[in-house]
Every structure is written in structure tokens, then in C-alpha cells.
Design goal:
By secondary structure, the chain is an all-alpha fold. 69% of the residues lie in helices and 3% in strands. The protein has 18 helices and two strands. It has helices at residues 3-26, 30-51, 55-76, 82-97, 123-127, 134-140, 142-161, 168-174, 176-184, 189-203, 207-218, 225-239, 241-265, 267-276, 293-298, 302-325, 331-348, 358-370; strands at 376-380, 386-390. A two-stranded antiparallel sheet has the order 1-2. Strand 1 (376-380) and strand 2 form a beta hairpin. Helix 2 (30-51) runs antiparallel to helix 3 (55-76), helix 3 (55-76) runs parallel beside helix 9 and helix 10 packs parallel to helix 18. The two termini are 31 Å apart.
Length: 394
């Protein structure tokens, strides 16, 4: 490693350490504070090891401090964000009653702002029963299964693309982008992994697989819907309209199959908890209140809420037009376009968190970890034969 590159990596780890230290200094949430102390120590160790030319030791230090130690401690002591409890409760309700949502929720903790697919990640805890041993906590914790879904999807996406081993992926896992949500909640990680896998399948010219994966993603959270448009655009550009339609039909049919039972059993609760609550229109205010532009506008009154919804719709229309006029043809271009759309959505949503922006960052970084060295990225021609061209810009 050249001196300039060593300096950049060292600075990067130090920046990550500074970010981690902000949590014990400013956050009131216990899991975040614990993660901040552990991660800061790991990142500082990584910076020191990098300065000494020990890259593998640096990565190990970052992974231990930012992921392994805080995750095991929080899981074994039963600590975490409320999302972990919500996922496990929805799995228990699904297993025992066939329903997902608490009727007439009275407080924030009673709301389940996820679609039925998320409950599957809570079933292991329900199957293990009410035991409180370390094995039950480790094998039943929803964060473990969220992480398994993420890593399984990323691995499958790389296999589909035939990507070689990349040092960027473990660094991404050790970074705050993945390490923090993985440790304290894990809730957005399965969605991120499935979006990556769907884009990989679309770029590889496999419309049925892409549609099935998109159905799984859309059954977790409705924020996965932009991924459907991007995958369809990639297939239309590279494989033709028939493949794009096939992908769209599989995605729509699969989503309906997974979501429709809950919609029929609890239509009012599905609307109240999955759509009204996250957008700030439920009786109970959402805790997602980071000072992003959409949230600040929504707080100005009813007209502010409608204004931010209008801006959100305009941003969605702009991304849709870009897909029609200049569709992405590579994994990198597709991930960039999806990341752009999701970033606009998260910034302009009436309620949101800074943590949501980790999904676009993960998409962009993962796509680049699959690209061959030299800047080329895989593309599928209409004949189905893999080709390599420079990565298409936005």
C-alpha cells in the first residue's frame, strides 16, 4: 500500500471513529451508546493498524469493535431498538393467530409498520418459545436472521454476476453504514440485500428470478417499490420488453400472494400501521423524526404535509422519466439510479430518519464491489451473452 493510500485509509477509520463517538456523546438510546463506545475503539484500532501497514489486522479490529462485540452483547442481554421486539412479536402473532398486527394500537410500541414478509424473520423466536437462555436469545433474535438475509442475498447476487472476491465488501460490513443497523435493529438489512440481489438478477438477464426477489422485498416494506421500476427498466433495455413484462408480472403476483392474506384479514390495521403511521398520518406520531427536509415541511401544518407529498411525487416522476429516457444497463448504473430515487424519497418523506440513508449508500458500494477492476461493469445483451462495457453514468 502506497503512503498516500495508507493515509487515506487511516483518515477514513479515524472519521468512522469520530462518527461512532458522537453516539455516546449525543444519543439517549442505550444500544446506540454502547455501539458507539465499542465501534470507536475498533475504528481507532483499525486506524493504528493501517498506519503500521497491517491491513488485515485493521479490518479485524473494525469488525470486532463495530460488529461482533456489540452485537453479541446486545443480543445476549436482550437489548436493542424497538424494531427487534416488533419483528419478533409479528412472528409470534403470525404463528399463533395468523394475524400480524395488534388491533387498535394504543402506543408506538403496538404499531408494526412492516408488511407480512418481515414477520417471517420473527418466527424463529416464536418457535423457540419463551426460554431465556443464551442459545434461545442468539438463535431467536431477529437481528441474526436479518443479517443472514442480507449476507445471503449479497452472496447470491455476486454469484449470479460471477463477481470475483472484493475487499470492499468486508470493509462495507465494518463501516457504520452496515455495522450500526446490524447491531441495534437489523430491520432495513433484508430489504437492502434483496434489492441488490434483484438488480443482479436483472443485469444477468434473469427476469423470473428478479421478479421473485422483488416480490420478497416488496413484502417486507413498501419502500422496495422503486426497485421494481429500476429492475424492469434494466431488463427492457438489455433483454427487451417481454423480459421486462415477465419480471413485472412475477413481482406483482408474488407480492399480492404474500400480502393479500393480511390485507383481507386486517385491512384497517394494514393501512393504519404500514402506510398512515410511517407518513405521520396515524393517531400516534411516528418516532421517525430526524430533521430532514420533508419532516421540517410537514411540521408547518396540513399545507406543509401536502407540499412535501407533492415534492415526493415530483421526485418520483423525475426518476421514472430518467428510467424511460435513459435506462440503466449495468449493475452500477442501476444501483446508482435506485439509490438516487431512494435518497430523494427519504429526504422528502413527511417522516424519516437519517439511518434510512444507509440503504442508498449500501446499494452504491455493493454494486461497485461486483464490478471488475478497471471500471467495467457487467451488462446483458439482448442475445443473453454477457458483455462488458464501461459503467453507464447517471
Amino acid at each position: 500500500m502506497t503512503p498516500s493510500r495508507t493515509a487515506r485509509w487511516t483518515a477514513g477509520w479515524l472519521l468512522a471513529a469520530a462518527w461512532a463517538l458522537s453516539f455516546p456523546l449525543f444519543s439517549s438510546l442505550g444500544p446506540h451508546r454502547l455501539w458507539g463506545w465499542c465501534a470507536a475503539a475498533g475504528y481507532l484500532g483499525a486506524a493504528a493498524a493501517t498506519a503500521l501497514g497491517r491491513r488485515r489486522a485493521a479490518l479485524c479490529a473494525a469488525l470486532l469493535g463495530a460488529v461482533a462485540i456489540p452485537l453479541l452483547h446486545l443480543v445476549l442481554t436482550g437489548q436493542g431498538q424497538s424494531e427487534v421486539t416488533v419483528i419478533e412479536r409479528s412472528g409470534r402473532l403470525l404463528l399463533h393467530t395468523g394475524r400480524l398486527y395488534v388491533d387498535q394500537p394504543a402506543g408506538v410500541g403496538d404499531y408494526t409498520p412492516y408488511l407480512p414478509g418481515m414477520a417471517l424473520l420473527g418466527i424463529p423466536r416464536a418457535l423457540l418459545g419463551g426460554g431465556d437462555g443464551w442459545a434461545v436469545r442468539l438463535l431467536g433474535d431477529a437481528r441474526i436472521w436479518c443479517a443472514a438475509a442480507l449476507f445471503g442475498a449479497l452472496w447470491a447476487g455476486r454469484r449470479i454476476l460471477g463477481a470475483t472476491r472484493s475487499p470492499l465488501l468486508p470493509v462495507l460490513v465494518a463501516s457504520p453504514v452496515v455495522a450500526l443497523p446490524l447491531t441495534v435493529s437489523g430491520v432495513d438489512l433484508p430489504l437492502a440485500g434483496l434489492c441488490c440481489l434483484a438488480l443482479a438478477a436483472a443485469a444477468a438477464g434473469r427476469p423470473v428470478l428478479a421478479g421473485a426477489v422483488l416480490a420478497g422485498a416488496c413484502a417486507l416494506k413498501w419502500t422496495a417499490l422503486p426497485a421494481v421500476a429500476v429492475a424492469v427498466a434494466v431488463l427492457a433495455a438489455c433483454r427487451g420488453g417481454r423480459a421486462a413484462v415477465r419480471c413485472g408480472l412475477v413481482a406483482a403476483g408474488g407480492t399480492a400472494l404474500l400480502v393479500l392474506p393480511s390485507a383481507l384479514l386486517q385491512p384497517g390495521e394494514l393501512w393504519r400501521q404500514v402506510f398512515a403511521f410511517p407518513t405521520g398520518r396515524a393517531e400516534v406520531p411516528t418516532p421517525a423524526s430526524s430533521p430532514l427536509p420533508g419532516r421540517l415541511l410537514a411540521e408547518l401544518g396540513p399545507w406543509g404535509w401536502y407540499l412535501t407529498v407533492g415534492l415526493l411525487a415530483a421526485a418520483g416522476l423525475a426518476v421514472a422519466l430518467s428510467l424511460a429516457l435513459r435506462p440503466p444497463r449495468t449493475v452500477v448504473a442501476a444501483a446508482d439510479r435506485l439509490a438516487l430515487g431512494l435518497t430523494a424519497a427519504f429526504l422528502l418523506a413527511p417522516a424519516g430518519r437519517f439511518g434510512y440513508l444507509a440503504l442508498p449508500v449500501l446499494l452504491v458500494a455493493w454494486a461497485r464491489s461486483t464490478a471488475p477492476r478497471g471500471g467495467a461493469s457487467r451488462i446483458v445483451a439482448r442475445s443473453g451473452a454477457p458483455d462488458r462495457r464501461p459503467a453507464q453514468a447517471l
